[in-house]
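Fold Annotation — chain and its backbone
Encoding — discrete vocabulary of local shapes
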Amino acid sequence: MVFRKLFGIFAIIIGVVVVLAGGVLLLVKALVTPEMIRKNVLPRVEKAVHRRMDFDDAKIGLFSGIALSGLKVYEKDGKGSFVSLKEARLHYQILPLLSHRVVVDEIVLDTPDINIVRNTDGSFNFSDLTHKEKPEAPAREAKTPLNFAVSRISVSDGRVIYDDRMGISGTPFVYGAKNIDIKIKNLTPDHPFPLKLKATVPGVDLGFSGSVERITDGPLLDGDVTVDAGDLAKVVAGLPPGISARFLALSPSGGITAKIHVSGPVKAPSAMLRDGNVQLDRVRFAAGGQSPVLTGKIDISNGALVSRDFTVDLGKNRLNLLIKTTPIDRKPLVVELDANSDSLDLDSLSSSKKTKGQASPPKAGGGEPGPSPNPPPLSVSGAVNVKTARFKGLPISGLSLRYMFAGNTLQVRDLRGSTAGGFFLGNVLIKTGTSAVPFSVGLSLRGVQVERIVPAFAPGAAGKISGILSAKAELSGAGATSAAIKRDLAGTGSFDMRNGRLAGGGFLNELARFLGRQELRDIHFSSYAGTFRIKGGQIYLDSTLDGSGIRTKPKGRIGFDKTLDMNMDTSIAPRTTGSWAVIPLKVTGTTGSPHFSLSSKSLNRLESEIGGTTRKLEKGAGTELKKGGQNIENKIRGIFGK
């Protein structure tokens, strides 16, 4: 009896379920049919997007939902495809259908293709979609009670093609993204919703995982962005021609990966950085005749950057860099950049040879660069420390400096190092904001062995000069070319060289010939000191040399063009006994081919020593000397006891 009652109850329940299931299925078929979609849904969407739409087939099932295959959104002219999908599926809840509502649990977009076109006039093929028109007064018509709510959206294997017919610099191009996968949950206009996105552009895999908010009023993102560019050569090769041409000359290679947490409105991308890191794996590019290789990490914390294990390899040279910045959205951006190296070959860094394929920079009109733009909101400062360096074959130890670049001004302070048995100290100031490029330099040397530095800076004088040099100079000028620098260079300085030697060369050889003293071809001195002034391409010298066989006071002008105009009150040691005779010499010609004569201003002083020849010297000294005459030379030799 009890069993029968239980059986009857279960039978009734099963019957009710069957009836309800059948009723629901009939209701689904009645509410959502291909005809209903074409009649009620498509017209509304077409009106909203101003585009014709169509689909191949629609399948509706109680549990499988709605599937639209071959869905297409056409271009404005109704011909080409703007958006197409292999299939669009909607999974809905069953019970809300009883109240004439369609609540969608999931929308799946399978293999969407989106074609974006920029026309030759700069407009886009979706410009009409973003144009807002005044709404028309709603017409009274029968409406099918239809209400959608979406919990999940999924996009798989999508593709976007960007066809730029306007192009870059007049060159049209096509660029695309593929393998687009998107997953969205609980999509609403006024609440955050989670988003996962993956895509591939030529040479780069991109990703985002986080949340999106306020999509109707400027999206806000909060999540992690990932970038994987394993081969920069492929990345550059895949760029549009107008862009890739600028980077191909750099011959980039290596890889970059990044994972960065961003948060904030997309309209201010620099302010979105929160934390993360960027990894550079042997990133190489050609620049300035070099091919630096960068390896290391850049950590991001609260929008600020800090490097970690960051190195730059330049041939056999390696620089260890430490980089720190303030948050990059703050102005001015403050960057601290320190560089350290155990060994540095400056000759290889200053090589003027261009790497293969490197583009030459454009030449500015008139040979001078144009004025720089307004100072960037940027400040860069730091220190450079090198244990050992080599410049033009000259070893330098303890090379260091501090620098700052801000407001189009570069300052180098405390430039110092030890070389050739002594040390140097300098400061440099360069203003880059104008085409004149004004600069100033302060330099001092102490205890430097001249014979060791001459081969580096004056190879032609190698082996001809020695001594211990101390010097100071304050120079200023303007220009970015050698000619401009020589033209505008000015300054003052002093020097003091001890226990030195001067040997050979055109100047001493001609001096020895003129005075008839061959030993003057090789001069040993205890001191050579003086001051100098530079102006208008000329060096104005006032100096004194005290040697074992000669004492002289060179004073006058030496041109950057190697011309000479100097007076030299010269005393020569007697061959046997007697006092030192003073000869007032005049030097003209060039440093390579000097011309010696007697100074006319001092001839009266000579008259008492060489006896009654003043007038003859005044009238014919230059001619006689030029012709190799012996009269004056014999007089001079007589003074020296020859």
Notes: The first strand starts at residue 53 and ends at 54.
